[in-house]
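User: Hey, my collaborator sent me this sequence without any context and asked if I could get a structure. I don't really work with proteins. Can you help?
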Amino acid sequence: MKKAFILIMLIVSSIALFAEKKEDIFKKYTDEKYYEVNNGEIVVSKILEGVPGTKDEIYNRIKSFFVRTYKDGKSVIQVDDKEAGVLIGKGQYFKIVAFSLGGGIVNADHILRVDIKDGRIRVVCSISTMTNLFFIPGHENIEYEYHVVDYAPFTNKRSSSTKSVQLSALIKCIELMHYSIDNLEKAVKVGLIKGENRTDW
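Assistant: No problem. I've predicted the 3D structure and written it out in structure-token form, which is a compact way to encode the shape of the chain:
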């Protein structure tokens, strides 16, 4: 009995410590402006200077990135305006976190906007909603979509998952948004495939 009690206390302590670490990470991201809240959306943005090539050459490289990145059924290129130098894609971060012993997952749709000029680009990645998806054997899956800034950690309200799951999903989303921008930067400067951006072939 005593061993069982000690084991339970260790598990509870570990969960509390893990939750505290997540809160510390979120506070750090907030304090360091690793993201911002703008018009009810979570936004990560970056301006890239010194991008090699003309506006049209940069556009072609970014378009290649979009075609390779936004290719599944849940992804789409929403705006493709070469003259204005604007590309906007919508994609999904799938299975950001799992909860309820794997019976539920959190997904989030994101928008990636790129504005292009000669030698520079501005990249803005944003999310406004997340979706909890529950898998119920023998029944239809249940989806619950919620507006991120209306729930924890921004308010005390929680969605159909726990506040801890919501916080984990938000942290992961912010990291994935940075990852998307970093991948785009690499594609524009180096190419997704080695030598892809070379013209001397």
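In plain terms: DSSP finds three helices and eight strands in the chain. You can pass these tokens on to your collaborator as they are.
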